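re: ur question from earlier - yeah i can do the single chain one, its not a big deal. heres the input i used so u can compare w yours
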Amino acid sequence: MPLKTTKFDVQDYLKTPDQQAAYLEAALESDDPSFIAAAIGDLAKARGVSKFSRETGLSREAIYKTFRVGGNPTLDTLSKATGVLGYKLTLVPKGRIVGSSAIGRLSGQRATAAKAKKRA
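and the output i got, formated as tokens:
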């Protein structure tokens, strides 16, 4: 008997601002530029590409082309998109805990534990 499957669509899980924020934060924590670009594209689709286009000043074509797997957004394009999503691009030293995400807290705990182990 064949296994019955259903098609997965991330849009089904990006209905609320909280779901969208969690998705973007997970993408950012992945440290994978291609996934981050694709996640922003998914969020643009969830919010409506036409609306996202008006808010960012980017064309619909640019959004579809840039924010996909393999997309390569410029810093300006990325800044416009993240600004509309409620984020600000910031550089922080590696290993520094940023925000209160679960992964951030866990990596900070590991770093703290590693420092304590070195002192002992």
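The longest helix spans residues 102-119. not sure if urs matches, ping me
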